[in-house]
Amino acid sequence: MRMVYSDLLAEHFERPRRVGQFTDATDIGTGVAGSRETGGLLRLQLRVDPNGYVSDACFKAFGPPALIAAGSWLAESLVGGSMERAETIAHSDIVSALELPPVRLHYALLAEDAVRAAIQDYKDKQKVYA
């Protein structure tokens, strides 16, 4: 059966934004969620400025269109926002924005896990280098 996706999801899949990778640094938080074996792997990185705002973000995803679109939308939506705002992003925000079908909810959950892991990684680095 062929999946019908929203226009925004299709746009982020066909022309993903902020694809890439940063070199590891103290101002970078990296989060990984999922695995190739289970059908989807998402790596999200955040660069945080001294004022606590996400100055840049990028992602890499291995999986279906819904996961790639979720990574693209998430990375794009985080830039310019505060870390406090980033901490409030939930899978329901991703589902709503991309109009993900219920059978693709798993990919929104992976994206939420990736952003939580990236935030925690950034916070852990700040404790080590403080």
Mean pLDDT over all positions: 94
Q: CATH top level?
A: Alpha Beta
Q: Considering DSSP H and I runs of 4 or more, what fraction of the residues is helical?
A: 40-55%
Strand order of the largest sheet: 1-2-3
Calculate the terminal CA-CA distance, rounded to whole Å. 53 Å
- Tell me the domain tally: 1
Structural class: alpha+beta
Short description:
This protein has helices spanning 7-14, 65-78, 83-88, 91-98, 105-129; strands spanning 28-35, 40-48, 54-62.
Question: Helices and strands in order, then pairings?
Answer:
Elements: H1 7-14, E1 28-35, E2 40-48, E3 54-62, H2 65-78, H3 83-88, H4 91-98, H5 105-129
Antiparallel strand pairs: 1-2, 2-3
Written overview of the protein:
With 130 residues, the protein is an alpha+beta fold. The protein has one domain: Sufe protein. Chain: A (Alpha-Beta Complex), CATH 3.90.1010. 47% of the residues lie in helices and 20% in strands. The chain is built from five helices and three strands. It has a three-stranded antiparallel sheet with strand order 1-2-3. Helix 1 crosses helix 2, helix 2 packs across helix 5 and helix 4 packs across helix 5. The chain is globular and about 50 Å long. The mean pLDDT is 94.
